[in-house]
Amino acid sequence: MGIIRLVLLAAAIWLAWRLIKQTFLSSKPQNGNSDTPSRDDNTPEAMLRCDQCGVHTPSSQAFNVKGHHFCCAEHQQLWLDHHERDEQ
Known about the structure:
The protein has helices spanning 2-24, 73-87; strands at residues 47-49, 56-58, 63-65, 68-70. By secondary structure, it is of the alpha+beta class. The chain has a domain at 45-88. The strands form 2 sheets. A two-stranded antiparallel ribbon has the order 1-2. The chain has a two-stranded antiparallel ribbon with strand order 3-4. It is rod-shaped, with a radius of gyration of 24 Å.
């Protein structure tokens, strides 16, 4: 009888932990207000190649200017500085 009680106690603790984790420790915002647009985690997102270094970045995080894509603001500025010099 002791082993059955132990298994039931372990199952109850595991179930309680899952409920607590799902309710209070969830990393997703509960109020729907977030800085990034909400999207399904399973939805694929276009990856854009940085015109400065070649790294691929999700389209929601890429910097875009004049039809060109960049992985960060620094690469965007470097590219713009280089091409403005070439145009002069």
